[in-house]
Structures are given as C-alpha cells and as structure tokens.
Write a structure and sequence with these properties.
The protein has an eight-stranded mixed β-sheet with strand order 1-2-7-8-6-5-3-4, with helices on one face. Helix 2 runs parallel beside helix 4. The chain contains four helices and eight strands. The chain has a single domain, classed as Rossmann fold (3-Layer(aba) Sandwich).
Length: 189
C-alpha cells in the first residue's frame, strides 16, 4: 500500500507536523514492523547510544534497555519507573527515549503476569504511563527526542516540554487497532 502523507500546520502556531499513514502486518515486536523500524532508524543513530527504553521487550535498538520480564534480552529487569530513576542517578548522557509500553490496561496485566507479578490498580490506570514519563522526560535534553508507540498520539506532551514533529499511523487491517507512532522533540525543560 502506498503511504498517505499529509503535512499539517498546528492551529495557533507556526509548527508543521508530518503525518503519514501506511499499512503493515501487526506484530507484538513493535520495532520489527518495517515502517516502524524505518521511523525508529531515522531518529535512533549510533547503534542506539544514549537512548533509553524502559519497556524494551525483545528488539529495542536503545543502549539502555529494560523489561520487567527476566526472560527478555535486556540489560535491566526492573519496574520501568525504578529503571528510569536508577539511570537518572547514574548521570548517563541521554539522547532520547523510546516509549513502547503495553498499549492497554489488559496488556499491562498480562505483561506483569508473564513476569510473575500481580498488577495493582495503579498499574492499570493512566498513572502507569505518566509515572514513567515523569521520570524519563527530564533526562531527555533540549533538542532530544521521545518516540512513543501505542493506540493514541498523546506522547509526552507540551506539559513535559515536548512538541510533536511527526506522527506515523500504521494500519494493520482486519479489526486490529492501528499502531500510532508519535515523534516529539524536547523544546524546553
């Protein structure tokens, strides 16, 4: 399927956001989906050096990888908030963040169960995502990027100092939800 490209101007600003829609088969391994892999490679350079991924799974290109499940091939196996807090104390040089958490509260519960942990009510609420973003956002320098993946384009948002640069909508066909990839640049602390 040919990508459908749209460039829009955000209302009330002089900023332009690139929006593309493409088709690709669904996969649990987000970063292996060809158009998503292409998007990630556009921003994540130098073998992922300086990039942080608190929900890495199996295929993250980031240097600092984490997954709660100890069976995943990541450097750390911690709660995502604790992982980000640990990295912030190590004074690492961060270039950007990849944010590919479980996309729904049901998926959060399943992800925790795979790691042998029972999800709490805080884990199955908006707090699950916001707690991680709140710790990760200050680690990303002005000019750095946050790439968020899920079923919405909320990303890190203006309140955390980011502006949207690009949105990639990946349609998967049938009754699969689209994967929405939101690229944001840090513009202020």
């Amino acid at each position: 399927m040919t990508p459908q490209n749209v460039e829009i101007e955000e209302i009330g600003t002089d900023k332009k956001i690139i929006i593309r829609r493409v088709f690709s088969r669904a996969s649990k391994a987000t970063f292996t989906i060809p158009p998503i892999k292409e998007l990630v490679n556009k921003y994540v350079k130098n073998d992922g050096k300086g990039w942080i991924d608190p929900f890495s799974g199996d295929n993250s290109p980031a240097e600092y990888t984490n997954d709660l499940n100890p069976e995943k091939p990541t450097k750390y196996h911690m709660d995502a908030v604790e992982f980000c807090k640990l990295l912030s104390t190590l004074n690492i040089i961060c270039i950007g963040g990849l944010f590919d958490p479980p996309y729904s509260y049901r998926q959060v519960t399943e992800h925790y169960a795979e790691a042998g942990i029972k999800a709490t009510s805080m884990d199955t609420s908006y707090n699950f995502y916001n707690r991680v973003m709140t710790v990760l956002a200050p680690m990303i320098p002005i000019g750095g990027y946050a790439l968020s993946f899920g079923w919405n384009s909320n990303g890190f948002g203006k309140s955390k100092g980011f502006e949207i640069v690009e949105i990639l909508v990946v349609a998967h066909g049938l009754h699969h939800n689209d994967t929405i990839c939101t690229v944001e640049r840090k513009v202020r602390k």
